[in-house]
Amino acid sequence: MGKRKPIDGSITIDLDSPASEDFENQPPKQCARRRRIARKQDEETECSTVISSCSVETIPCDQKSKKRSKGRNDVSGTKKKLDTRAFDIHFKNMWRNFSEDKRTPFTYFDSLWFSAYMSSSSKECMLTWIKEKHIFSKRYVLVPIVYWRHWSLLIFCNLGQSLQSENSPPCMLLLDSLQMAGPRRLEPAIRKFVFDIYKSEGRPESRQSISQIPLLVPKVPQQRNDEECGNYVLYFISLFVQQAPENFSMKNYPSFVSFFLVLLCLFMKRG
User: Fold this and answer.
1) 166-204 residue pLDDT tens
2) Which residues pair with 142 in a beta bridge?
3) I need a surface site. Which of 38, 95, 102, 156 has the fewest CB within 10 A?
């Protein structure tokens, strides 16, 4: 594994940026209204629900402006529970701070897309929006997941490569700061999600071959309370984008994960 540059222990986030900034790619017009309705329903549900362990707590509408601090803040200063709106603000500001060469191999999904996909009424729209991301031309795809009131991070690696590739075959990483919750319980849904993505893109791979794409769940630092899961996902994204190898493969997976884990522990201690 090649030599990597040391990272800065503080990842800056500009909280002055508006929450309504557009995604990298706008969804098709025929799905836009459904998306607005889905997001509105999600926010209303969050506002009316008292949330428990590792939940997604919504910031009251009249307090949102107060939550934006002046200047720049780092991830380590984000200690409260995150709802999808707050997560997206932090993520997009962090994304802008990455250099262009770091962003180029990546694309990402909206934090609501996976949970919306799980709703049969929204599935087709989700798959349509995903097409606009051109994920099979990217080395990595970041998929923040908020499901069962808990945040985790799914990363697609090399989806555009042949399943028979010896050097860089497709694989998936699932990073979860609450192992006791059993991250593998998401595997059936993730595999169905991936199969539907392949199918909607008209890819030739069979269901059987797609089902054999490895889903790896490496050990990562665990959250210390029931409020940190969203913040941990931001940590995971920040370090992975900075340290991801040019060619991720199953051969270098153990050494990369060990290296990544050490950096992650150091980064979080400094936070």
Assistant:
1) 888 999 999 999 988 889 999 999 999 999 999 999 999
2) 108, 155
3) 102
Q: How many CA atoms lie less than 13 Å away from 116 in the CB half-sphere?
A: 27
In sequence order, the β-bridge partners of residue 154 are: 143, 174
User: Could you tell me the domains of the chain?
Assistant: 38-270 (3.40.395.10)
Q: Are 128 and 149 in contact (CB under 8 A)?
A: no
Q: What is the Cα 218 distance to its own chain's centre? A: 16
pTM of the model: 0.71
Q: What is the pLDDT of residue 195?
A: 96
Length of the chain: 271
| C-alpha span between 256 and 261 (Å, rounded) | 8
Q: In this structure, what token pair is assigned to residue 113?
A: 């897309």
Residue 187 to residue 34: CA distance in whole angstroms: 27
Both tokens assigned to 15:
């909280």
Within the chain, strands assigned E span 12-14, 72-74, 106-108, 140-147, 150-157, 171-175, 215-216
Four-CA torsion 229, 57, 91, 73, nearest 10 degrees: -90
Residues 151, 53: contact at Cβ < 8 Å?
A: no
Q: What does the block give as tokens for 173? A: 């990483």
Give me the helix-helix angle, 123-131 and 29-48, nearest 10°: 120
